[in-house]
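Page 47, continued from p. 46.
Same chain as before, 101 aa.
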Amino acid sequence: MSSLAAAFNRSGFSRFINSPAGRVFRLVAGIGFLVVGLVYWNYPLGVLSLVWSFFPLSAAALDICYISALLGGPLSGKKIRSTRENEAMAPSAAPQNKDLD
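Result:
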């Protein structure tokens, strides 16, 4: 995984978007884009909205994160969450300062 993907997957936005609440948000956003697209399908922005609705709807339904994948990280939301949990449980690899008095 690239360092950019790792940084994204540790971010607050990634934590939210890959949580159950984030999946609901993506589903509602996708439905919103779909409704706007259906209402305005005669206009270019309506068609664009219809096409765009595929991304949040599929991401919510399949528990995937396109942003992480584009940055070189895992596509699966489950894998992102498990990686983050494993990092949180692992002991810190940072060197500890010891007083050498």
